[in-house]
Amino acid sequence: MNPPRETSTGGWTPIAEEAERAAKVLHPDANFMPRPTRRRVLTVANQKGGVGKTTSTVNLAAGLALHGVKTLVIDLDPQGNASTALDVDHRSGTPSVYEMLIGEVSLADATQVSQQSPNLFCVPATIDLAGAEIELVSMASRESRLKEALTSEALDELGIDYVFIDCPPSLGLLTVNALSAAHEVLIPIQCEYYALEGLGQLLSNIELVQQHLNPALKVSTILLTMYDGRTKLADQVTQEVRNHFGDVVLKTIIPRSVKVSEAPGYGQTVLAYDPGSRGAMSYLDAAREVAERGVREQR
Ligand code: ATP
Ligand code: MG
Q1: Please, are residues 98 and 141 in contact by the beta-carbon 8 Å criterion?
Q2: Which one, out of 63, 117, 140, 150, has a CA that is 20 to 30 A from the CA of 288?
Q3: What's the 249 CA to ligand 2 centre distance in angstroms?
């Protein structure tokens, strides 16, 4: 941990520091993040379960939205975890990503505004999505149905700058739809022993999608999550991922933090639940890095 430093309120205590950090989240006017040069659509994918896909999706989205960037989360996981964390209605029968995929409702009809920010939108997942992997098999253009629903016109209408698509832990048709609809892939990697296992399979699926469905797709961002500074292993994994993927990996690493795991239980992102916590600040830093890349990079 960094040693305490003098805060703008003149104090030296950890509490004053935490208050200052919270103020950055809660009073973001002075810290606006840049809008991207062009709209960015990022699929958050890793077929390994529990690596922080949903947590990263909702907290990065909230970080951007709280700082003036209009952001849409598409919950493409039948578990509906992103919908829960953003506290949007996702009872069976609610217009959702399922109806969007089968062409029954438009993006605008399925989109809800999250209570957490007027800039934060969500297309929820209901339990109806659980059958979609099978239903999609017999449908026309089964790999591109999400892409067809996410037209530029529909996104322009809502004024969306960023779209994050939260994938289920599999490489099935839902994930293929997400990869076909996106410009970029964001891969969260947990700083643990088996973290890199299965990554090869994900990368070869991404290559297949590039070859057949979406040539412009690229792995633009890797986010290291659930870092536990007490273990040597976490540093080894971090180093290995950085050696392998270089600048694609965000500088910010998300620490393992109880606050991050508690937040969804309250229907909140960690930025709303405990804005002064280390977890909130690291997601905010990661969101700022994502935003800065969106201005710098020519796509
Ligand atoms: P799934 O594959 O099931 O969709 P996922 O990849 O979306 O999982 P999450 O649901 O985001 O992973 O995270 C898995 C679990 O780890 C959750 O209980 C979450 O609250 C917890 N978690 C995520 N990030 C952190 C963190 N930085 N610190 C502590 N707990 C975390
Ligand atoms: Mg998830």
Answers
A1: no
A2: 150
A3: 20
Residue nearest to atom 23 of ligand 1 (CA): 52
- Atom of ligand 1 minimally distant from the CA of 188: 6
CATH superfamily, domain 35-298, is P-loop containing nucleotide triphosphate hydrolases (3.40.50.300)
Please give the distance, rounded to the nearest whole angstrom, from the Cα atom of residue 238 to the centre of ligand 1: 18
DSSP string, 130-170: GGHHHHHHTSTTTTSHHHHHS-HHHHHHHT-SEEEEEPPSS
Q: What is the DSSP string of 2-15?
A: PPP---TTS--SHH
To test the ligand 1 pocket, which listed residue (44, 55, 202) has its Cβ within 8 A of the most ligand atoms?
Answer: 55
Each residue's pLDDT tens digit, 259-286? 999 999 999 999 999 999 999 999 999 9
How many whole angstroms separate alpha carbon 283 and alpha carbon 66?
12
Return the structure tokens found at 75: 């919950």
Q: How far is the CA of 13 from the centre of ligand 1 (A)?
A: 31
Report the SS3 class of residue 259: helix
Structural domain spans, the chain:
35-298
- Tell me how many degrees the CA angle 20-26-30 measures, rounded to the nearest 5: 80
Residue 106 pLDDT > 90, yes or no? yes
99 lines ligand 1 (CB under 6 A): no
